[in-house]
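Morning - molybdenum atom inputs below, output right after.
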Amino acid sequence: MTATSDKFATCNLCEAICGIVVETNGPHIEKIRGDADDPFSRGHICPKAAALKDLHEDPDRLRHPLVREGQSWREVSWDHAFDLVAERLRDIQQRHGESAVAVYQGNPTVHSLGAMLFAPTFVRSLRTQNKFSATSVDQLPQMLAAYNMFGHQFFLPIPDIDRTEHFIILGANPVVSNGSLMTAPGAAHRIKNIVRRGGKVIVIDPRRTETAEIATEYHAIVPGTDALLLFAMVNTLFAENLVNLRHLHAITVGVNELKAAAAPFPAEKVATKTGIDADTIKTLAREFANAERAVVYGRVGICTQQMGTLASWLIVALNVLTGRIDAPGGAMFTKPALDIVGMGLLSRGSFGRWKSRVRGLPEFGGELPVSALAEEILTPGEGQIRALVTSAGNPVLSTPNGKKLDEALSSLNFMVSIDIYKNETTRHAHVILPPTGPLERDHYDAVFHALSVRNTARFSPAVFPKPPNTKHDWEIFAALTRRMSKLNNKRAARNFAEAAAFQWVGPARILDLGLRMGPHGGKLSPFVGGASLHHLRKNPHGVDFGPLEPCLPERLPSKDKKIQLAPKLFVAHVPRAAIALDKQPSSELLLVGRRELRSNNSWMHNSAKLMKGQPRFTLQMHPNDAQKRHLKTGDKARITSRVGSVEAPVEVTADMMPGVVSLPHGYGHNRSGVQLSVAQKHAFESANDITDETFLDPVSGNAALNGVPVSVELLHQSLL
Ligand SMILES: Nc1nc2c(c(=O)[nH]1)N[C@H]1C(S)=C(S)[C@@H](COP(=O)(O)OP(=O)(O)OC[C@H]3O[C@@H](n4cnc5c(=O)[nH]c(N)nc54)[C@H](O)[C@@H]3O)O[C@H]1N2
Ligand SMILES: Nc1nc2c(c(=O)[nH]1)N[C@H]1C(S)=C(S)[C@@H](COP(=O)(O)OP(=O)(O)OC[C@H]3O[C@@H](n4cnc5c(=O)[nH]c(N)nc54)[C@H](O)[C@@H]3O)O[C@H]1N2
Ligand code: SF4
Ligand SMILES: [Mo]
């Protein structure tokens, strides 16, 4: 007889942070189901949760450090690997300067408490200006907007979707992505509830998405033109006297400057450019202004495009102009148990303190745009990058012109990857340091509780003990930090001391202190209740602190306690948007991305469970565009951009706007040296082999992964 037991845990694959129950039998997983007692996710999961079993058991997942010599890999001891890494990085820094070592941090970093707490000290110990991350292929414009408008890059307004009556969604597909910068487990259900309450849900996207399917209204928009549409909405609000800042009146500056900025963009002028007629635009603005509780929200499709910063700015601006910020049913701020913004645990941000060497792209929050990474490695001269540390990232598949970066990585003098797989990126590493998997370590969502539609907290102790001779990510970072922190100056000595102290204390006790000192905490007294690690351990399904509450101006991070409605940096770029009004439409097709429920960026394709069924790597295309090119569903097409070509089967669908085609990203597992046996059977090609590293949002340097001009031609016809 074997005994099964239920362990309560958290799915860490996406921002929805669903509570799960892992049914274990000794070291085995019998089943993973949603935790119906979780007060926040209430049993919701998606198919990816069950794939945590595949990930946990995956024979391809690395568990011990590997060193590469030529094409062959051998296992080494942790100490040997750490010493080797520190020795090589230091040697390169001594010979070529500190910035000769670059670092790239990927998305799963923010899904790990250990990495969140320990990676920053390690990155500081490198003392390099060449820091990159997935931020600049994702939410950078929204952070730049928050930094300029509220005074803190992480003070991000969250749509209060459980109480709104009017939800406008641009460039996001929460039914599939499960929500982003909007932690809302069961997002589809929450959106359906808006409709059930008699509210409106309006989706604006070049593709009639799964979210559009459950919305009350859908408008197709030409990729990259959202800023024009939003300007026209702002313009309508002013023209029709619909501006009403309500409670924000006393704490907002720049209303007149915003009005002037929007002046060149009346609805009539932007209609043909955006593909949305003038009456519809005006109605969108009027209904939004007149709704009882309303919010505009935008995400990846808004950020990763040429006018990403302007669009991100104008979304916040519309919410301010109608008094929706900090109002129930509008865009609100969290008060998380671990108050990463309020307690000053994260830096406010910075912009343009330095520029990338080759193209002069601006620093943001200490990082440079990743679109510049390949050229910084490939361009000789002083300041050239010669070594790279990657951590939880797969930039070869996830950043623009992946082929060029692929080549660049193979030219590095040294590369180390902290990663659980030998994949398209880490195959170039000389050393791979694999941390424990998500079920083998304690979990707390330091970031996503702070971006959530409710104030909740959940601590999930590791489901399984750490396997022998493995290390947690935080242990890897601490070990490397100690080796990298030379004791020859005060800052390095402090870094060393911090790393040593942190390592001794460990993430759980740091979290406990943070929870106690936070807004829901019981402080240091053992007799006062409130948030603490002990309290969360006693409530393994999570603790609900209730809906988001108004908190301005108290929590407003800006030094003058004001919301800046027209930041100078953004206003300076308005003429560029005006030029777009006069540009001739391109005869080419515009490529956009899409996500799928059973896929997670580039790295969950090794789960057999998720890869079952019809191949999902298809080029979606409108029937008119297909007909013009003599293409039908199933035909193989070649898609070509400035930087290269990929091949994909065509899927003809009226869901696409004419003139726009869509490919999912994260595939392309056919590169040699990859150890992903399931993914290699579903290799397909990488959409980022045709996205363009020179195609950018020029304000922030964020990659414009959407709206990329491409041509499409028939390669061979389907025999079916
Ligand atoms: N064309 C196009 N490109 C895009 C996007 C798009 O919409 N279109 N989206 C962009 C977005 S939003 C993002 S966030 C980026 C993501 O970009 P990245 O973060 O660079 O890529 P991921 O695919 O998330 O790769 C995650 C890596 O982390 C590893 N990993 C997984 N779990 C762990 C762990 O616990 N510890 C460690 N150390 N490693 C781990 C995986 O093996 C993998 O190598 O991609 C971007 N790229
Ligand atoms: N299943 C699944 N879930 C995920 C992920 C995943 O890979 N798979 N990734 C996670 C990550 S890292 C993130 S950041 C989030 C992203 O979460 P979302 O932002 O919700 O995700 P996407 O599905 O990329 O939605 C982007 C939408 O923008 C549209 N779009 C493209 N260009 C434009 C444009 O110019 N204007 C407008 N208005 N729309 C445009 C696209 O058609 C697409 O529908 O999802 C997370 N959740
Ligand atoms: S929506 Fe799916 S992937 Fe995201 S946390 Fe929930 S179960 Fe995990
Ligand atoms: Mo992302």
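Note: The mean pLDDT is 96.

O.
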